[in-house]
Structures
1.
Amino acid sequence: MSQAGQGTAPLAQQDERVKQISPLRKALIRPELGAIVGTVAVFAFFLVFASGSGMFNAQGVLNWSTVSAQFMIIAVGACMLMIAGEFDLSVGSMIGFAGMSIAILSVTLGWPVWSAILVTFALCIALGALNGYIVVRTGLPSFIVTLAFLFILRGFTIFFPQMIERKTIIGGIDTAAEGDWLAPLFGGKIGEPVFLWLADQGLIDVYTRGTQAGRPIVDGIPMLIVWALGLMLFAHVVLTRTRFGNWIFASGGDAQAARYVGVPVSRVKILMFMFTAFCATVFATCQVMEFGSAGADRGLLKEFEAIIAVVIGGALLTGGYGSVIGAALGALIFGVVQQGLFFAGVESSLFRVFLGVILLSAVILNTYVRRIITGER
Amino acid sequence: MSSFDHNPIVEMKDIVKHFGPVVALNGVSFDVRPGEVHCLLGDNGAGKSTFIKTMSGVHKPTSGEILFEGRPMQFDSPRDAMEAGIATVYQDLAMIPLMSVTRNFWMGREPVRRVGPFRFMDFRHANEVTMEEMRKMGINLRSPDQAVGTLSGGERQTVAIARAVYFGAKVLILDEPTSALGVRQTANVLSTIDKVRKAGIAVVFITHNVRHALAVGDRFTVLNRGKTLGTAQRGQISPEELQDMMAGGQELAELESSLGGTV
């Protein structure tokens, strides 16, 4: 192909109708714009209305960071899957199911906690693969297939503990997890020496009474937050910088066109269902390690919260377009608003109103931005 | 360079294709040589689509022989045909509008760069090659990050053609690349076809527009109701004759006179 175009090379001219785009505009026009604007707005709002409430001291920051990190873990999974062109409505049920599985295996059956965790991960990822396999093989909308799993998994999550223990909440996981080598990876904290030092310097408050007297109020970063940031970084790099990431975009953008050039679309989609299940299980494991118990109603409605965060983050519901960073910011907005209204002393039912308004405005802005980027009409 | 110095790269002899009781192709013979544009003309339903799908490995012929580079060919899938060097650019199935030009160009064949144990997509190389290949085809992209959706229909066809050529197509099958385009866009695509021919690639150009065919074609084969009505060399046939052959002559002649001869 080296000789093509010889002698006619300078034929192409810049089309005079293509306007030059200023660097500032180019920097602004990105899929995450809605989420970035939303994040700034939310922080500005609470800095004004809740700055005196302790929302921005160490404990307050830890509080909303933890809640945001929970949203972030499932939003990252949902984001990758949505870009690959599919939904998973069974995420919430999967969270309940995974937590209950760990509880039953470790507390009721007395397995070591690490083996309960590993078996639960294997089980849930296999269920994710089953979800994906059914979607890919039948060609049914993933909406329907995973809606079925929403009920199937939730049903089992209520049925098993009731049959075995005659209750729907199983506790005692914290005692079972003592001395376990794997549990701290989900329930532990890192950076304790740094926080002790900060407390010594008087930068973090210390407890003045009780058994913990002298300890800093915040004594480390929960592994939950580490998982959230790690998963976000991993997913972002895979999506934007690798060959597999290109296949994810292609599978969601136009599966037929992708198949035609040799992209293994079915494999990509099934792997994304497995990744979503993995994220849900990480969420569940962190949660049972933190609470020390598993409940049959855990994770209710989480699938929608994940999808909302992803959509605020600029992803297209029909697939092929989106950003992990955007989804993570969407999750941050979620967490900050939910906890911030509490700090600001606002009636907590208004959380839903606020969320609806943010969702709608972010999506309208995102739709506008996307039209500019992709030339959609 | 005359294309007749070469032997045909693809030769199809007496191809018959049945779909159940329907006879889609009833003994079609066709060949194309490196460095020539062989136009396949026919009205809607003439069997053009079935014919190119047979050539590109989507359908297996019911009977008949296909030779590729002189040897009988057996393709089980379009992917096999692509690996061998037969690339098809379909009118609509070529590009993903939401993705950037670079991502589309390299889709399925992304270049990778190793960093320690990790393998990343080599965007610098991919962007450079994309810009260069598009420039050769006469399109200056604003940026390789530009989404394909922002390109015009003709430019999208050109990206698809440039992609096929860059990845080593020896035979390029173009399925009605000009049918949905405006005048200026059509001229651009036709000039791209001309460049591809000059690079020594065999081009099969499917169209139902006689003027587009005559603008770039070296040879013309007309399909009608699943049969070839014959092959003509450039200069041996007039536009009117081609048009008549395509549409079955008499009826159209009457229609045309009532429309003032502009069809």
2.
Amino acid sequence: MPEIAINKDKCKGCFLCVSVCPQGFIIAEDELNIRGIKPVKFKPGGKCTGCAMCALICPDCCIEVYR
Amino acid sequence: MDKIYAHPKSLRDVSTHYCPGCGHGLAHRLITEVVDELGIREKVIGVAPVGCAVVAYEYWDFDCSEAAHGRALAVATGIKRVRPENIVFTYQGDGDLAAIGTNETIHAANRGENLSVFFINNAVYGMTGGQMAPTTLLNQKTSTTPDGRCAQLQGFPLKISEMLALLPGVKYIERVSLHSPQEIIKTKKAMKKALINQMEGIGFSLVEILSPCPTYWGLSPKPALDWIKNTMVKEFPLGVIK
């Protein structure tokens, strides 16, 4: 099953990936990262389709996609 | 399982100093993806501007130079003429290319230098605190136009791409945007074309990229992308200009 890997410590919390995920499976993390902001995480139990739109729009290159 | 979207090899794995949602990070990444795909990492030389992207060479893992404010195309001209076998591009913001560097830009284009130019248009001066840029839209509020840009006082948004398209030395100009995944794919295609034009000796190519500056537009990252789509594109229409 496709999946994404998020580099949470590089994430700046702009949430652009959240806005483009067609499944709505990228959500805010509950805990802060080393920057002191809430990064994103993949919703537990969500089924990624591997469309890679999140990786395409991430301005900080924090997301890698496996399919 | 295959990795279908990986960190580009030409992009250093470091955090950038850009604000959350800034278009510079995206544009940097697209350039490195194109460089990797064309296999020109050992041949390419980037010229960084003065502006928010002044330390772009800290993020690109290939040869780079830095130019005085606005003079990137003059420096790039020198590099390309001395080392014609290298692929030379400049990366400039609107303050750099369309304000202090208008002179260098117009004359490099008029000479038809075989260079690729990536022009980041975010309609504001980012590094110095959100002042009005030549490309600021009418009625757009900035720190030096608190009531909005007024045509009578500050003139009209400068359409440098349309101006340069009149010059016979210019071979390719396209205006693209970063406001959606579809437009990002088009941006990458345009960047690739600009570099291929140089490799084939076709001549001066410029890609104008409408890019978000959430901090100085006073918007969150997603509304900043919507602002490009709904407002900025009306003033700066997308597509191939020449």
